[in-house]
């Protein structure tokens, strides 16, 4: 089995990626379709891959064994967790090895294959010895306990916030004190049907699932807020905000544009009388760190939007994308764990694909630091 325990290791460097292997004899490496190494040494260093850029290596050994390695370069100082830490997949005829940097204070990781929980592991890796015959979706999830602030009064504020939470939210007490880490690996044993793409669109929609939401602040003039009354749906027009980032002309010098929108926020009494309504500002939804090159583009999407009727924590998220004129990519991001979040991508004329979905933990976050969700999506295909 070609896996990180034996044959192939992937190690992040401050300025690149290192591959090492244990097989003797000559090795041949093709990086993103280009020959980059042939020799008998047991390692290869890639200094050309940029942070967040999905890269695919095809390794062929003198013994006749072959493997594909998929990963991305990292930056130890990047603000997004999965841009600082490595994720990788080694894919061979005999199985798939998923590997990631260990998360501090995390004891176990849950592994899902095609949406079904298949394992729980204590190390930062998982071997699936089932040969792949079709595209397969893996998900790795972990919870890390939060370290609460030691500022005076912080624990009291946190206690009051929880005390005002709806009873049905108490079942989430362990999640409420934990940060969530999610890794998605889309692994394909074959080259995607779409070899080149000219347009890629991202859609992000935080939303409130219930139709009516109780305000945890008992002294507010708005005892209830109108929710969006829906579940996950890429096409829904009910959301707190919708942000779309469109990349066009990827086969040349790309064009990048952003479209952002917020729906009305309404407050109600317990008798459903409107107490106020307003639309939140989307001024703090913007792109930064944009780089545009022939056939590729990278950007960071920032979002911080609050409730226009009351003083409350903002809905915050950050998404980093490094896209090329290929269907292969890596996305990484983080967001507050309230409200619900959904992220979708459309490549060319293909249907929308789900990148990330996360349930809300409730509205009672009143103590810093807020527990965030950190996620990454890596396509493992040539």
Number of beta-strand segments: 28
Uncertain residue ranges: 150-172
**Strand residues, percent:** over 45%
Order of adjacent strands in the largest pleated sheet: 11-10-13-14-28-25-24-23-22
Mean pLDDT: 88
Most strands sheet? 9 strands, mixed
Indicate the radius of gyration in whole angstroms: 22 Å
Secondary structure layout:
Elements: E1 8-13, E2 16-21, E3 27-31, E4 34-39, E5 43-46, E6 54-61, E7 66-72, H1 81-84, E8 87-92, E9 95-100, E10 109-113, E11 116-121, E12 125-128, E13 136-145, H2 154-163, H3 173-176, E14 178-187, E15 200-204, E16 212-214, E17 224-226, E18 241-248, E19 255-262, E20 264-268, E21 274-279, E22 285-293, E23 296-305, E24 315-324, E25 330-336, E26 341-347, E27 353-358, E28 372-380
Parallel strand pairs: 14-28
Antiparallel strand pairs: 1-2, 2-5, 3-4, 3-6, 6-7, 7-8, 8-9, 9-12, 10-11, 10-13, 13-14, 15-18, 15-26, 16-17, 17-20, 18-19, 20-21, 22-23, 23-24, 24-25, 25-28, 26-27
Structure commentary:
This protein is mainly beta and 382 residues long. The chain is 5% helix and 48% strand. A 9-stranded mixed sheet has the order 11-10-13-14-28-25-24-23-22. The chain has a 7-stranded antiparallel sheet with strand order 4-3-6-7-8-9-12, with no helix packed on it. Strand 8 (87-92) and strand 9 form a beta hairpin. The chain is elongated. The two termini are 20 Å apart. The model is unreliable at 150-172 (pLDDT under 50).
List keywords for this structure.
382 residues, mainly beta, 9-stranded mixed beta sheet, 28 strands, 5% helix, elongated
Short characterization:
The chain has 382 residues and is mostly beta strands. The protein contains three helices and 28 strands.
